[in-house]
Amino acid sequence: MSDSKSLRISPVPSLGKGDVQVYTSAGYLRSIRSKTGAGEVSYINAATSNNDNQLLAEIGYKPELERKFSTLQVFGIAFSIMGLLPSIASELDDGLAGGSVSTVWGWFVAGIFIFLVGVTMAENSSAIPTAGGLYFWTYHYAPEGYKAVTSFVIGIGNSLALAAGVCSIDYGFAEEVLAAVVVSKDGNWEITQGKLYGVYAGCVVLTIIATCVASSWLAKMQSVSIYSNLFIIVLFLISLPIGTKINRGGFNDGHFIFAQFENFSDWSNGWQFFLAGFTPIVWTISSFDSCVHQAEEAKDASKAVPIGIMGSIFVCWILGWLINIVLMACIDKNVDRVINSPYQLGMAQIIFDSLGKSWTIAFLALMAFCQFLMGASSMTAASRQIWAFARDDGMPLSKILKKVDPKFHVPFYAAICSGLMSLLLGLLILIDDAAAEALFSLAIAGNYLAWLAPNFLRLTWGRDVFRPGPFYLGKFWSPLVNWTTVIFMAFIIVMVMFPTQKNGINKENMNYACVIGPGTWLLSLIYYLVYKKKEYHGPKSNLDDDEYAEAVGQEVLDAILSNDNTTDYKAV
């Protein structure tokens, strides 16, 4: 077996024991056949791989991007996209629709479940760290006969959700910039949908340019974003209470902060708690899969990506909760006045009441800067997902979108594509605020569907082909946590389709996400069945046998073809 060309053989069982059968062939260099319905898939074992490129070869790909991202910088890309204070500013008005109880406790309760979602994604990314992780995992665990179509719908849906995420972030940037103008004009300036889209479009173009720099600069940008976001949070937590004490005479009492429930809708109090309390945090902490999309640029990806996912969620969960508590301590008790502030954002009104005009403009400028970094990081993640999906011929114009610049090692065309998608989706801004708000719900629903699918499939048809990587909860806790998150994610997908009002639905208060989200998923299914089925057959290896043999090493080849390692192949 010393000749690597011995791999060029017809599929022959290499093992006769265990829960799965292992094959070696030209089509699938390391493949196993599931006995629980997942069919034949590549055998991938992150726990025994010696380095990133060896593991990537087992997954089926050659390295095309540079591994410049440290564990801190992988954490940084998710932390940057979450952009805690700017994100809270963008979604605060929705949270206040349930009073301080929804704002404070909705964030805390939902944060527990979101962290568990991150834990399950950390398990998946530790086992199979690749830029197209979500659709790849879906294919890997899906039932035989439905692998390609399920993977395709998730791949398209995730790409659109990430583009919608860029939209919602850059829309928040536009709101903050124009809110600063309104404050500077003492409220005597009107914000129109056209002005919002103009600033939004300019931000998207700038983020495209920022995304098209070399990987080393993108990695450094994450460090800048970490420090910028932490600086503005610390400044906010110090200055706002001081200003409130000096200019407003003191803080709201504990009952108002932690127990004051107000319902500014006609939904029942219980449902309004979920709508107002959960929506802000599920949008704010909704881009931790960006760590997955950077997996092929991360050093020691099977460990760095899980740490980045869980670390970013935990930090933003706790820091965000503290920020909300401070906000409720400093806010005007007339919450309706804050929600309907002439400054466009309730956050601007809170800062203005406590710190005055100059500080408000300064904070809005700082938040807009951090929001821009959020948009750049989000577009980076979106471009990597689009590139990875195009590499497997899943995107329209895949031959162009899969190209990587040989000098900068950046997928320029994929970055431009993600920007163009954001500009097109952003046209909803021109309709009205309700249509623009659909961008937030669409980003949430699309992401949660893409996260839910591989978890559910791994627990069902693909349970015997899952090989844990360095991070794994164990045989008892892993299924328990995974099933909990499947139920939570299904609930969130349904929840974000609801409008803010129960009665009197019209074009001004309708939640367009209930049409756009399922509509795009249905259209992607039709597109696959009518046309793309001919081209997309699931993730495909771009390694020939010699490249594979060189990447994994002779020891691995001998182990694959040897009957002496039977126990290594037993399903976990």
Word description of this protein:
This protein is mostly helical and 572 residues long. Helices cover 64% and strands 2% of the residues. The chain contains 22 helices and four strands. The protein has helices spanning 52-59, 71-82, 84-96, 99-127, 133-141, 147-184, 193-211, 215-247, 254-259, 269-284, 290-293, 301-330, 335-339, 346-355, 357-391, 398-401, 412-425, 433-459, 477-495, 513-530, 545-552, 554-561, and strands at residues 12-13, 21-24, 31-33, 40-42. The longest helix has 38 residues, at 147-184. It is globular, with a radius of gyration of 24 Å. Keywords: Membrane, Transmembrane, Transmembrane helix, Transport. Belongs to the amino acid-polyamine-organocation (APC) superfamily. Amino acid/choline transporter (ACT) (TC 2.A.3.4) family. It is found in: Membrane. This is GABA-specific high-affinity permease.
